[in-house]
Design a protein that fits this description.
Strand order of the largest sheet: 1-2-3-4-5
Helix content: 55-70%
Radius of gyration: 26 Å
Number of domains: 2
Distance between the termini: 29 Å
Shape: flat
Number of strands: 5
Length: 193
């Protein structure tokens, strides 16, 4: 697919032709100079790993929304099953409180997934910060599992820690940071008279 853009400012007139493969030819004519300058730019595409991480963020947000609905339902069921009214209220409020926390975390996942999809640098930073916080909690969970020798929990916590570390390292790599910076690579200028 080809798109043509015409822009103008006080200094020059620009004609840009964008091709679907991420290649742009940009022609500029300065008001001071009669020559036309052609610039070939290659735009950075979204890395595959960022796409995968973004999709996992969408899936995680969806799972958390379902978990929140389950907590609302569980709180309502426990409150109706309680024989004392005070305990029923505590069960209902407890379920609602946990559900609201799940919805808040789902919102963070959704916002960061959308930002990663659009290659917004703030989303990359937010994702790294959230994962570092998650690493701290998973590390505490691993220590607790090691203290009680829960072998399955140890294995699961180790998988979560390895996965979180992989994402943090991946989002910190130079080519991924460059994709989020929005800079172009491979610019070549050609002057025609």
């Amino acid at each position: 697919m080809r798109r043509v853009y015409i822009e103008s400012d006080l200094q020059a007139i620009f004609l840009s032709v964008d091709y679907s493969a991420g290649l742009t030819y940009r022609f500029a004519q300065s008001r001071d100079s009669p020559s036309i300058e052609a610039v070939k730019e290659k735009h950075m595409e979204r890395p595959t790993g960022v796409t995968v991480i973004s999709i996992l963020g969408f899936i995680g947000a969806g799972c958390l929304v379902f978990a929140a609905l389950g907590m609302f339902l569980a709180g309502a069921m426990l409150s109706s099953m309680a024989e004392r009214p005070g305990i029923g209220m505590i069960a209902g409020l407890g379920g609602a409180f946990v559900a609201i926390i799940f919805l808040g975390i789902a919102a963070v996942y959704l916002v960061s997934a959308i930002g990663l999809w659009k290659l917004q640098n703030w989303a990359r930073i937010l994702t790294v910060v959230v994962l570092i916080i998650g690493l701290c909690f998973n590390g505490l969970g691993l220590v607790r599992s090691l203290a009680h020798l829960f072998l399955i929990r140890i294995f699961i916590q180790a998988i979560f820690i390895a996965f979180d570390l992989w994402i943090v390292v991946y989002l910190s790599k130079a080519h991924v940071r460059q994709a989020f910076s929005g800079s172009t690579s491979g610019s070549t200028a050609v002057t025609a008279s």
